[in-house]
Design brief:
globular, mainly alpha, single chain, 279 residues
């Protein structure tokens, strides 16, 4: 993702170079950032992503399994065509940003973070099965008290926060139109919403979906107000990348009764073509 945003619509100046007393340009950039209001126009994509969690139940009720399979194909194409190449660039950026620090294997940090993200979300995906706490909509009050529900939904809330933050405060300068990015992440979140709604029933419908929608908006707000150190941003990108790969494989690739090969394939090829043309 770009340093601030996938497209110019979301571009707002940020200080990316060291500022010292002798740097006039740095002082001017710092003044602009200190006096510039929130870029409200950048809120459009996070609002769409938050709305997917809030209104996902309506979408799932009206959409056939074919739509979910096609959406899974879109998200998977985003992983292979855009996100995996971005990890390579992020790894090089981490080496540069962490130069002079005694860090073990800095060239592998982003890939290690991706592996950790993959394993964490694999654990979250299996958490409900291990604990035997699948619920229905009518069990909302009792299920909402179970710690596993808080852990499961809380993990995905952190994930949604990171996705929203990195949409504004990315790492690389490889542009991807924000409409295409929002489409991929929106369908990805739709798959997550479908899975959580199926696993936690009313507990998710009454509480969880609002938590995830709030996490998306909070990620945007924090990104607009502050910028963390680049090594931490790159590590976060690795975590998100691992999570996207894991969730695309396990949650968005539906079960045998819901899977649709051709809608999945056409969704993947169609979105890949759009990314190639946009690039």
């Amino acid at each position: 993702m770009p340093s601030r945003n996938p497209v110019s619509l979301f571009t707002r100046c940020g200080v990316t170079t060291p500022i010292d007393a002798g740097s006039i340009q740095g002082l001017r950039l710092a003044h602009r950032r200190a006096t510039q209001p929130l870029a409200i126009d950048s809120l459009a994509a996070p609002l769409v992503l938050a709305a997917i969690f809030l209104g996902g139940g309506v979408v799932h009720g009206a959409s056939p399994p074919v739509a979910l399979s096609a959406g899974a194909g879109v998200s998977t194409a985003y992983v292979f065509i855009y996100m995996l190449p971005e990890l390579s660039a992020a790894g090089a950026a981490f080496v540069t940003a962490s130069a002079g620090r005694a860090l073990p294997a800095p060239a592998l940090r982003v890939y290690g973070a991706a592996l950790v993200g993959f394993l964490v979300f694999y654990g979250l995906e299996n958490l409900v099965s291990w604990s035997g706490t699948r619920t229905t909509h009518d069990e909302a009050d009792r299920a909402s008290l179970r710690p596993v529900v808080f852990i499961h939904i809380g993990g995905f809330a952190v994930y949604a926060w990171l996705v929203s933050y990195l949409m504004i405060r990315g790492v690389t300068n490889a542009p991807v139109p924000i409409v295409l990015y929002t489409l991929a992440m929106g369908l990805h979140f739709l798959g997550i919403d479908h899975s959580l709604r199926r696993e936690h029933g009313g507990a998710y419908d009454h509480v969880g979906r609002f938590v995830l929608a709030g996490a998306v908006l909070l990620g945007w707000l924090v990104a607009e107000l502050t910028e963390v150190a680049k090594p931490l941003i790159i590590t976060g990108l690795g975590l998100v990348s691992g999570g996207v790969v894991m969730n695309s494989m396990v949650m968005e690739l539906a079960g045998e009764q819901e899977a649709r090969f051709w809608p999945f394939t056409l969704g993947a090829l169609g979105y890949a073509g759009l990314l190639v043309m946009a690039g």
